[in-house]
């Protein structure tokens, strides 16, 4: 049986590292999106994001957080914000040696959530 992307990248522990890099080096340094996180409990946010990315990479679906639409309510996320986050996720995965092909697969899954996240 073919390995899931989740297994390929090294499971939840490896994804937690990707998430740390994603926030510390990319998202929180990006003035186009960092304002969304100024009042956020980042520990909790990292845990949620790790579970979410694990799920996006074909890992166990333990993402029981609010529905995506609910989680992003009142944020009024615009296309450029969504695209910036996707770009950062791409960079973070690439930084940890995930292949372009595998990154595309993961981002395709993330893109299916676009309508649940934007303009809320």
Description:
The chain has 120 residues and is mainly alpha-helical. 61% of the residues lie in helices and 0% in strands. The protein contains seven helices and no strands. The longest helix is centred in the last third of the chain and has 17 residues. The radius of gyration is 14 Å and the shape is globular. The model has no long low-confidence stretch (mean pLDDT 89).
Short synopsis of the structure:
By secondary structure, the protein is mostly helical.
Overview features:
7 helices; mainly alpha; single chain
Note the gap between the termini.
40 Å
**SS elements, strand count:** 0
State the helicity in percent bands.
55-70%
Q: Total helix count? A: 7
The unreliable regions are none
Topology:
Elements: H1 5-9, H2 11-26, H3 42-56, H4 68-71, H5 79-95, H6 100-111, H7 114-117
């Amino acid at each position: 049986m073919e390995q899931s992307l989740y297994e390929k990248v090294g499971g939840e522990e490896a994804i937690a590292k990707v998430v740390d890099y994603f926030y510390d080096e990319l998202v929180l340094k990006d003035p186009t999106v960092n304002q969304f996180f100024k009042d956020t409990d980042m520990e909790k946010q990292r845990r949620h994001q790790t579970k979410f990315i694990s799920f996006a990479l074909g890992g166990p679906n333990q993402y029981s957080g609010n529905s995506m639409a609910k989680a992003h309510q009142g944020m009024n996320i615009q296309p450029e914000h969504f695209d910036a986050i996707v770009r950062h996720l791409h960079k973070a995965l690439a930084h940890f040696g995930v292949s372009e092909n595998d990154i595309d697969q993961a981002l395709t899954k993330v893109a299916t959530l676009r309508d649940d996240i934007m303009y809320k």
